[in-house]
Design brief:
heterodimer; A: 879 residues; alpha/beta; five-stranded parallel sheet; 26 helices; globular; B: 190 residues; alpha+beta; three-stranded antiparallel sheet; three-stranded mixed sheet; 29% helix; disordered N terminus
């Protein structure tokens, strides 16, 4: 995702779970790791046993907090203020890792003289266009770069941007270096000084005021981090959707990236940022995406502005230097994998046949089109959006407005049964007999009934083998997709319509086997991993060519079938190999477990310290060596200097560890790649009971809103009526349940362990609203009201913010009307309001009210909500 | 605990047996029936190495199969990540795959209908194929206002879960991109 991608180059965790054992400090923030990733948490405990400090920053005290040395309660939605405070602490107290920062980050780069900071413009960066609600980012670029960010600039202006994990579209750098630098980091426009000024007001006092964290506690965290970073020591951050599900979520992760670069904690053992993904194959679903804006391996989906032909598109969307400098190799190899012999140099390898994106076509945008009657068909496969997505009411209204819906799942989930069990049926807003949607429900195979790979949270592909055949009509997605493709191609065979050419040119002939004509999943993996023209397997992405002589379905996976071996299926026991366990599965890229690991050595190639040795330059053998595969050109010496006009990796120096970036460096400051600013800035959540003390601009000005009657917003402080919804509400998950519940509310033992929805509130809030522990409570927003059992507990502390007490309500979100255990759906409370970079919804911080007792039944609940909206003066555009 | 050798190793009355078994978990609790029980993991026809389908820690699983059925799922001690451990969800995987409410039949709900009906899988696939082709044709966008090619449809949307395999996602992205459907999305967004 772009938070990690723009900072370091790749949108994946920089390290792996087992490496946490080497950390000297671990900060877990935006994650309840002990409960949501319990087995991974053993590596935090290993570190603690070795003497590491563990810090948990979270609104609630959880089992993660119980195992930590320090729990820091924070107001939901204020993490940039907290992390920005740490950046300021590091700079003010001169605690940065100077040699690392000067050589491995863009701290020394001088920025365009037109750049203005949010500190200068009261919450806006330069380039703000109030007409379009977007930034023109040309002034954010490095000083003296000839065409600023060229095509990437245009892309940034449209609603298509921020999508690519690589930020430096079209950046032209000679010898991979920015034109203007100041190695003393004193120039007023160098990144370091800009950063210093940007965060100078993020003082411990400000952190206390915004986050509700006492100054002493904050200083303890900042000092612990600094003490445990440097040559001899390293620290790691772990986060999950507590960071991503905000209107500034990408910038949360960016702030952690800045801290880790300043402290020299990236690419080194015990360091890094570990993104904790919540599903078995979340990482894999981004790497080989079913996402609208990218192709496999993070190649951008083409859009009209980027040019009609392959070369223009490549030129406009990739830098010349760094690993993306070879984007044409990756793109041509992908097109060869998809279109086979039909893709030739003469026809631009069928590039022209690909569909184009020109706006936000994400899940929530599509839901809006369904509501408008513009999108008649919908496939929902292994997903339960009426429970799992924000504003469930909108989701259900959208489904009721389709012509046809196909749901594939292992259980009959609520997304398939919405037409008879929605709450809107109960309220009378929908009537089964009036819903015209045709629904197909198709049973799916489980993981034990098919071969295939999951990519876990550390970029590691692990193969699972089929144990049994699926029963009845249940089929794998592999079989189903292949079958659908064959049927559509059969019916359109012989068509001369231009729109059918891509489909008919597609390579679509996999070997099938077994009673259900199941395609061979390993054959698909072979296509992903890449082949030479003679059919032999490629070993690495550097083998890929731009002339059509190689094919590769995803360049970052190049080599996953090297030597004719399914590398993802390797299962050598950990007891028979070193602690990195390189022969268990396969980590992209090139089986590297810590990426950017060139940074584990100093500029001359020597380990920073014996204690933190990982990858280093072997002078005798003239190559990089160590415990992991070097994330670097294997024989490029530390003192290598590029020649003029070198491109790709050749253009990066021997001391440039961030090889995906055009300048080979970690980005403290992101000159391109993000919609909402080159540096993270504290904005309040879209709905907040507090005023932004830093700027008049209260919220992220680019947050994506949907002004329609189905999606009203609560007023936010200081708007009148905000105090009708005076409390913060945040969601989370439980150990015993899995997201929208399709795989857990249907499992008897898990349903017994966590039988019903509850809310966690403090004794003080319970007293304020007259709610008893164990009784029912009703939580109200301008979207709806839901009921939950009250769990009155000290685990949620009231916080002092801006001189007043702020209460927070915690809600697990797993329930719906189906399954063995039923309950109201927490996500129904939340509005659609999204991060502008990635279109992720803000469900980790909104406002609400809470009342004792059960919610009204039937249409009475609508009257309750209407009454609240009237009292709060909720304005609804479109009514 | 006694090993499952099918023999009662101690023929003393239960009360006396308990003297040798202070926790009451071994011999004292044993009956003729329980003494003959053997773990399903011992009698399995085969053991298949797998990966937990829930979160992204990626714990190794061992799937035990007997007579074509999954009989037990346990943690895989060989895994360098999980070292044999599973959390409550992972440990409940056997119930997940063998759930009594697992869907096994294709169901169809006609427009305005108040109930499901069963239809054959092949018929459902044909119907879906026809709808994909018709909707695509009806909602096709060849070019934008400036005459630049778009080659797409926004009449079909896709939302996939993140417990699908990467090989499956690859085929889905490949097929639907060739169909021109751009609204292809995933839980990873959410």
């Amino acid at each position: 995702m772009p938070g990690l991608g723009t900072s370091f180059g790749r949108g994946g965790a920089t390290t792996f779970q087992q490496d946490l054992q080497n950390s000297d400090v671990i900060v877990i923030q935006g994650s309840n790791m002990a409960e949501c990733h319990p087995v991974g948490f053993q590596w935090v405990m290993e570190a603690k046993q070795r003497g590491a400090k563990v810090i948990h920053v979270d609104p609630r005290f959880t089992r993660t907090s119980a195992m930590a040395d320090l729990h820091v309660p924070i107001r939901a939605g204020t993490d940039i203020a907290f992390l920005g405070g740490i950046v300021n602490y590091i700079i003010e107290n001169e605690r940065w890792f100077d040699e690392y920062v000067k050589h491995y980050t863009n701290a020394t780069t001088i920025v365009d003289e037109g750049f203005r900071d949010t500190e200068d413009l009261d919450g806006f960066f330069s380039g703000w266009d109030p007409e379009t609600g977007q930034y023109d980012i040309s002034t954010w670029s490095y000083a003296g770069t000839e065409e600023h960010t060229a095509g990437g600039h245009k892309e940034q202006g449209a609603a298509v941007s921020g999508e690519q994990a690589h930020g430096a579209h079209g950046m032209k750098l000679d010898r991979g270096r920015p034109p203007k630098e100041d190695e003393t980091m004193q120039h007023p426009r160098c990144v370091f000084q800009i950063l210093k000024r940007h965060y100078s007001r993020y003082t411990p006092e400000l952190v206390e005021e915004v986050c509700g964290i006492p100054k002493e506690t904050f200083l303890q965290v900042a000092e612990t981090l600094c003490q445990n970073s440097g040559r001899e020591r390293t620290g790691a951050f772990c986060y999950a959707v507590g960071w991503t599900q905000h209107t500034v979520g990408v910038q949360y992760i960016r702030t952690a990236g800045i801290i880790q670069l300043l402290l020299g904690n990236i690419g080194r053992p015990g360091g890094g940022i570990l993104a904790l993904r919540g599903h078995a194959n979340i990482q894999g679903s981004t790497d080989i995406p079913t996402l609208f804006n990218i192709l496999p391996g993070y190649l951008p989906m083409p859009h009209p502005q980027a040019g009609p032909d392959l070369d223009t598109w490549v030129g406009n969307t990739s830098p010349r230097t760094g690993a993306w400098g070879d984007m044409r190799n990756y793109a041509v190899s992908l097109l060869k994998a998809w279109f086979g012999d039909a893709a030739t140099g003469e026809n631009d390898f069928c590039f022209g046949l690909l569909p184009r994106i020109d706006a936000d076509h994400s899940h929530y945008a599509a839901i809006n089109r369904m509501l408008d009657g513009k999108c008649p068909g919908f496939f929902v496969v292994g997903e339960n959006p009426v429970v799992g997505s924000a504003n469930g009411r909108m989701q259900r209204f959208a489904l009721a407005n389709l012509e046809w819906l196909v749901v594939r799942d292992v259980q009959l989930i609520e997304t398939a049964t919405f037409w008879k069990d929605s709450r809107e049926i109960e309220t009378g807003e929908l009537k089964t007999e009036e819903i015209g949607t045709e629904v197909f429900f198709m049973p799916a195979a489980s993981h034990t009934e098919k071969d295939g790979s999951f990519t876990n949270t550390q970029r590691l592909l692990q193969w699972h083998w089929k144990a049994v055949e699926p029963e009845g009509d249940a089929r794998s997605e592999l079989q189903w997709t292949f079958d659908l493709g064959r049927r559509v191609r059969r019916k359109l065979a012989g068509s001369t319509e231009p729109r059918d050419r891509a489909l008919l040119n597609l390579t679509w002939n996999y070997t099938t086997q077994g009673p259900h004509d199941e395609p061979d999943a390993q054959e698909v993996l072979q296509e992903i991993g890449g082949r030479h023209a003679d059919g032999s397997f490629v070993e690495k992405y550097q083998d890929l060519k731009n002339d059509g002589s190689t094919s590769c379905g995803s360049w970052i996976h190049a080599g996953v079938y090297k030597g004719g071996v399914n590398q993802a299926a390797r299962k050598k026991p950990h007891t028979e190999q070193n602690w990195v366990a390189p022969e268990w599965g396969w980590a992209w890229p090139a089986n590297r477990h810590i990426i950017y690991n060139r940074a584990s050595a100093d500029p001359s190639g020597k380990p920073w310290s014996e204690r933190k040795k990982y990858v280093w330059w072997d002078e005798e053998q003239q190559k990089w060596t160590g415990y992991d595969d070097p994330d670097f050109v294997p024989d490029k010496p530390p003192d290598y200097q590029p020649k003029k006009n070198d491109i790709g990796l050749d253009a990066l120096r021997g001391d440039s560890p961030f090889i995906i970036q055009a300048d080979g460096r970690g980005w403290l400051y992101a000159p391109a790649g993000l919609m909402d600013g080159p540096m993270p800035t504290h904005y309040e959540p879209h709905e907040s009971p507090a005023t932004n003390p830093l700027y008049t601009q209260q919220q992220n000005p680019l947050r994506q809103r949907f002004n329609r009657p189905e999606n009203p917003y609560n007023p936010t402080d200081p708007e009148p009526g905000w105090d009708v919804f005076p409390y913060v509400v945040t969601t989370y998950r439980l150990t015993e349940h899995h997201t929208a519940g399709g795989m857990s509310r249907t499992v008897p033992i898990l349903s017994q362990l966590q039988p019903e929805l509850f809310c966690e509130i403090s004794p003080e809030l319970a007293a304020e609203r007259g709610i008893e522990h164990g009784d029912w409570a009703t939580i109200v927003t301008s979207r709806t009201a839901i009921e939950a059992r009250a769990n009155v507990t000290d685990r949620v502390k009231p916080l002092r913010v801006e001189g007043r007490t702020i209460h927070q309500v915690g809600l697990p979100y797993h329930w719906g009307p189906g399954g063995i255990v039923k309950g109201d759906t927490a996500n129904d409370l939340f509005p659609l309001v999204l991060d502008p970079n990635v279109h992720i919804q803000e469900v980790k911080a909104a406002t609400c009210d809470i009342l004792p007792g059960r919610r009204p039944r039937g249409p009475d609940v609508l009257r309750l909500v209407e009454d609240y909206k009237r009292r709060a003066g909720v304005k609804v555009v479109g009514e | 605990m006694e090993e499952g050798n099918g023999k009662l190793t101690d023929h003393l009355p239960p009360l006396l047996r308990q003297l040798k078994d202070p926790l009451g978990l071994g011999r004292a609790a044993q009956s003729r029936h329980s003494a003959r029980l053997v773990p399903r993991t011992q009698t399995a026809d085969k053991v298949v190495q797998s990966v937990c389908p829930y979160c992204a820690v990626g714990c190794g699983q061992k799937v035990y199969v007997q007579d074509g059925k999954v009989t037990q799922i346990e943690g895989d001690p060989d895994s360098p990540i999980s070292r044999g451990r599973l959390c409550p969800k992972g440990a409940a995987s056997e119930q997940y795959v063998n759930s009594a409410t697992r869907a096994k039949k294709v169901l169809y709900r006609a427009p305005y209908a108040t109930d499901w009906q069963e239809i054959p899988l092949d018929q459902a696939m044909e119907m879906i194929t026809d709808r994909v082709i018709a909707t695509r044709e009806k909602t096709w966008e060849s070019e934008d206002d400036e005459g630049r090619p778009l080659n797409r449809t926004r009449g079909i949307a896709w939302l996939g879960g993140a417990t699908l395999d990467s090989e499956e996602n690859y085929l889905i992205k490949k097929l639907f991109t060739a169909l021109g459907a751009v609204q292809i999305e995933n839980q990873a967004r959410i």
